[in-house]
Amino acid sequence: MKVLVPVKRVVDYNVKVRVAADGSGVETQGVKMSMNPFDEIAVEEAVRLREKGAAKEVVVVTVGAQAAQDVLRTAMAMGADRAILVRTDDTLEPRAVANVLKAIATREEAGLICMGKQAIDDDMNATGQILAAKLGWPQGTFASAVTVADGRIEVAREIDGGTEVVSLTLPAVVTADLRLNEPRYASLPNIMKARKKPLETIEVDSLGVDTASRLTVVSVAEPAERKEGVKVNSAAELVEKLKTEAKVI
Amino acid sequence: MTALVLVEVENGAVRQASRSAVAAASRFGAVDAIVFGDGAQAAAALPGVTRVLSVPGLVNDLAEPAADLLAARAKDYSHIVAAASATGKNILPRLAGLLDVQPIPDVVEIKDADTFVRPIYAGNALATVRSADSIKVLTVRGSNFDPIATEGGSATVETVEAPASEKSVFVKVELSASDRPELESARVVISGGKGLKDATNFKLLEPIADKLNAAIGASRAAVDSGFAPNEMQVGQTGKIVAPELYIAVGLSGAIQHLAGMKDSRVIVAINTDPEAPIFKVADYGIVGDLFEVLPALEKAL
Ligand SMILES: Cc1cc2nc3c(=O)[nH]c(=O)nc-3n(C[C@H](O)[C@H](O)[C@H](O)COP(=O)(O)OP(=O)(O)OC[C@H]3O[C@@H](n4cnc5c(N)ncnc54)[C@H](O)[C@@H]3O)c2cc1C
Ligand SMILES: Nc1ncnc2c1ncn2[C@@H]1O[C@H](COP(=O)(O)O)[C@@H](O)[C@H]1O
């Protein structure tokens, strides 16, 4: 079975982004970029499936600008076998990304798509579900454990009240939650090796899929700042203030 | 225009987040509700709901049959809405995929029938977006819309057959039992972080939660360290809460945690480190050792 892992290059999770002065978006100039943390978890899971013998090959794919190559190299340093860059300078919405990924999954005859549950830039939490719908495959979202056996995949899912387990036929789409695994660090020798692994570039237009946007960004604004409050010296003083000043208890 | 709202019913009662979703959807016009499993009666009692589509055969909220069913009904509606809950986030984007529309997740404000505000970058920016799709598929943040009442309506109920699900089978569910209020609807939330050091100490939050009738939350670090189950995680990737009072104990206030609680009305932080970012959003802060402050707080309440 071939596992396809879509990964996205995003503003690093440690960066507190700033809204651009003209309200068109956020400042990304000179900001540290990394692989979306959930996608690292997805790559790790796919590599583990191959190490366990449940998968034969791990192919990573990103839809983005030339610079997004770096996250593909990182994924290969973590153990992915090869990479595909679907090149575009536009920012695509989940629906459009799903159209592109569907074309790649079909071409690659993927048996499993393992991806992040959410990109920490747009916070959409949608691409995996849209992709599964478009492929007509079942979905195991917000996965905290997966087991592949007998042509099926069992997925433990994080839900509001606890954990749920579903069993899906393959091929399927799984989206990774934080506790699925702890991704490995790429070692220096593996980073060197990853430079020699195959990286194919495809122009998005050559796929002939619909990548139009359905949402127009009218504006992007800073949320209201909270003002810093006061320090109190004791629990008793706190309770007093909560009762008489904040009137919340 | 009529909106269809996916209403979640738990133990015979409509979840508060779903009542917020109905409130949001009523901004668009008439509201129909769809309920999977039992619970059509509770949904029919919601004020403002005209018609309930009851799908008793769909007991486990599996996304595949649920999205198929919604897609088959979608043409009657201008908006399809759900709470931004685990269920809503599982099913609605799949529905959007079937309809070939771009979903609009985590709506915090409705400007008009096409224009919505949603947080991006863990809530560090708010994007106003206009949708060009003829059917809008959106999930809404409960904390941003006052829930409608539980009683007062009298909707008609239509029973709908559940589609078969061959590709996806429900195996089991483990729900953590708790008599505390739900995190997302509690008036008071007390959350613990890595500073509590272990699972036994995490229980120090309980007597205070008891006194305040509070829900208990946790940082990701606390969940990862096994102090608390995953469903207690508050933050960008956990629950989003906005209670009247949020008490943060021994947690630093990472961007991802703040994303889940910074809209609380009053925030209290207890932390030994005066530089901890949580103090930047706290209305009241105590710089001190939680192992001394918590017992004193319990006594003072
Ligand atoms: C993609 C992604 C998503 C994430 N999503 C979330 C999320 O949804 N929710 C979330 O919470 N995190 C999330 N995180 C993790 C987040 O970045 C932080 O790592 C996490 O919130 C830290 O938890 P903490 O504050 O408990 O631990 P720490 O940062 O270790 O803070 C512990 C605090 O306890 C204080 N302390 C220690 N001892 C005492 C004492 N005796 N008395 C008082 N104070 C004490 C310390 O001063 C310190 O400030 C996410 C991270 C990533 C990458
Ligand atoms: N441009 C992209 N290229 C590759 N994968 C993507 C892209 N955008 C989103 N994804 C995948 O879809 C997941 C969910 O993203 P989102 O729906 O945008 O929150 C991410 O974790 C990635 O695995």
From TrEMBL, chain B:
It comes from the Bacteria. GO terms for molecular function: electron transfer activity; flavin adenine dinucleotide binding. Residues 3-174 form the Electron transfer flavoprotein alpha/beta-subunit N-terminal domain. The keyword Transport applies. FAD binds at residues 219-220, 233-237, 250-257, 271. SMART domains: ETF. Binds 1 FAD per dimer. The lineage of its organism: Bacteria, Pseudomonadati, Pseudomonadota, Alphaproteobacteria, Acetobacterales. It holds the Pfam family ETF. SUPFAM superfamilies: Adenine nucleotide alpha hydrolases-like (SSF52402), DHS-like NAD/FAD-binding domain (SSF52467). The electron transfer flavoprotein serves as a specific electron acceptor for other dehydrogenases. It transfers the electrons to the main respiratory chain via ETF-ubiquinone oxidoreductase (ETF dehydrogenase). Gene3D superfamilies: HUPs, TPP-binding domain. Keywords: Electron transport, FAD, Flavoprotein, Transport. Its cofactor is FAD. CDD domains: ETF_alpha (cd01715). Belongs to the ETF alpha-subunit/FixB family. This is Electron transfer flavoprotein subunit alpha. One of its GO terms (biological process) is fatty acid beta-oxidation using acyl-CoA dehydrogenase. It comes from Gluconobacter kanchanaburiensis NBRC 103587.
